[in-house]
Write a structure and sequence with these properties.
15 helices, Arc Repressor Mutant, subunit A, single chain, 11% strand, Conserved hypothetical protein from pyrococcus furiosus pfu- 392566-001, ParB domain, 299 residues, five-stranded mixed β-sheet, alpha/beta
Amino acid sequence: MAKATKKQALGRGLSALLNDSSSTISSANDKNADKIVGTIVEIELDLIEVNPYQPRSYFNEESLRELASSIKELGVIQPITIRKIEGAKFQLVSGERRFRASKLIGFKTIPAYIRLANDQEMLEMALVENIQRKDLDPIEVALSYQRLIEEIDLTQEEMSLRVGKKRSTISNYLRLLKLDPIIQTGMRDGFLSMGHGRALINIENTEDQLGIYEKIIQQKLSVRQTEQLVKNLKGEPSILPKKNKEVTKTPKFISKGIKTISEYFGHKVEIKLAGKDKGKIMIPFHSEEDFNRIKKLLE
């Protein structure tokens, strides 16, 4: 542990207060709150419980090992934040990665700042800290915003001040939660970005949303290509057959020839029927080079 931290040894009086098993400090009026809150001390890791309101359950193991290696060399430079609860125990407010990394390398104690926090404040601080992380996926951020609204009863305006984000930014994240759960999962797994999600929100029909989502995955469409696809779709009733409606059966001469045409152009060619024996052949392209390649084949 860093020497600078070890100098903050506990006096007998403070040690006794911290070990008082009967006290919980969640208000400035609680017993000994003025003597304990605001101090930075070395606390045994075994006496600290993780934050039950922590909205994040997954911690990247490789990232934790890297942090543990740094802590082993330099010590914990920034103290974790805790609150005093009953039974001579403490609860994490923030700093769970530092807490986990310290346990990983066998440290027995950790420098901790003791602050005042009730259950609602614990949840709010955990959510706000979570939102500030750079490695969160858009749906994790959106869910944190939603919890702040529902459980802390914050308006978007109040939340904007708390997290230092524009109200329009918060609104854009919250809109992502209107997407189909399959698409939300795709965003969490990194198959598409927030930009893709924002484009898909503009499609009201769930089947059409999922249809374009599949195209994004299969054809590796950019955000701009997705936006154009959505724009094109909005000029038509639907790109997918609707349920409980009769779907025109593809004639045999088309089903037999479509594979040959698709192989020739190197893309899955789409057929849009306009009657029993007429329609359109649609050849997709994904770049200027791809377009020129198809043009040469047609020439």
